[in-house]
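User: Some background: our group keeps a shared notebook of sequences we're curious about, and every so often someone picks one and asks for a predicted structure to add to the entry. Today it's my turn. The entry only has the sequence so far, pasted here. Could you supply the structure so I can complete it?
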Amino acid sequence: MRFNQKIGLAYYNLTHKAKYSVKMISSIMLIMIIMLYSLLLLLGIERYYEKLVVDNAKENNIYLELELDGGIRADDRKLLEQIQELDGVGQPILYAAMDLPKLTGNESEWYLMSDRATISYGDNKDVLRCVKSDVLDVLYLGNEGSYFMESDKDYFAYYYEGENLVLTGTDAQKSGDVVVSDVFLEQFGVGEYDTLIGERISLYIDDNLFLDEARLVGVYDSRVSELAGMKYCSPVIYCGEQGETDSLMIKEMSVCIPVIGWENAEDINQSLETIDGNQKTFFDEYSAQILVYVNRIKQLVYYIVLLIMIFVIVAMFLSLCGVLVNRIQENTSYYAMMRAVGLKSRDLLGLLHMEQLLLLLCAVFFTMPFAFLGLLLVNYLLQNVLQAEIMLSLVDFVRIDLGCIGVVYLGLIFVTGLFSLRSQRQQISVLLKK
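Assistant: Of course. Here's the predicted structure to add to the notebook entry:
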């Protein structure tokens, strides 16, 4: 039997069994609407929780201020070592903002402009002069590694989807390395960042040498400083040695120690109390615990919604199966007659498959207005009830909708094939007598 013949015969059978068709379409519609609304709601909750985690992960750190006196004091160094030994903490980041006006001998100024700086690089000491002036400041990184934590990179990637924080090179620095922002290079007329990666650059302020032969290892995206709630990132990040702090007039250094995960916040806080670290450190334990509780509530809502969805859908699907079984039993002799006149079993299955496909397409068509209403409803809850600046996109809707259609389609085909094969197991002559 050809494809167009199957469609024509399936359409004829459905239009002449209007009661059956209406029951099937309405049942499929209800199943799809319940499934779609539930999944859209769960996806909305997941996106909301994901945003909470991303927004708060950058604050899930232990902060410590170190006073320098020719280096880190013995008691501060011991405290820092004890914190590093705690379970669930990452590599510490030591940094300090350089006081450029003080270093240049003019403490009456609050800041310096980049038009007072020049850059030389390469063996030929090519000079780059400022073409677009802006505030210039330099951050001192007191340990090897990266100034940017993984939470910073995740935060950037979340708000600038598909983009990397580091535009070229690497953010991992060793002593004598420097990482700069793209805007900083653009101020000196550099458009092709790759050409300077690996070059030794010297920074001059008022023609006086400030940084000598620092190796440029990476360029980061300056938009990270524009994100609301994100830490400000200096256009120049220089990684130096502890002995340079005196010459750079650095008297205090900040320490940021990232905490891995949220679940062990209470244990870390108790450990800080044990080593008497609470007097000098700051750790926002309560924010971490709130996110843990929010995660538990999210999981509870997941289970409740999924259980309700599964029970309701199973009940409705069993009802739909009952309608389908009655239909197949009523047409047992009709299908046997068609087989008697030469219709093959696979063609019969193909015909029943085509009937279910037409019913499904019809149900999908009538479901669309209700489906879009579900998308609008979830977005309204996210925007106005949860006050979250997130929305489910049309792509999310299509992906979920196609998944629901696929599940219902496979369920219909499986049940139809199973019941039709069982109804046609006997001889044709026996079936014709029914």
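Suggested note for the entry: DSSP finds twelve helices and 14 strands in the chain. The longest strand covers residues 208-220.
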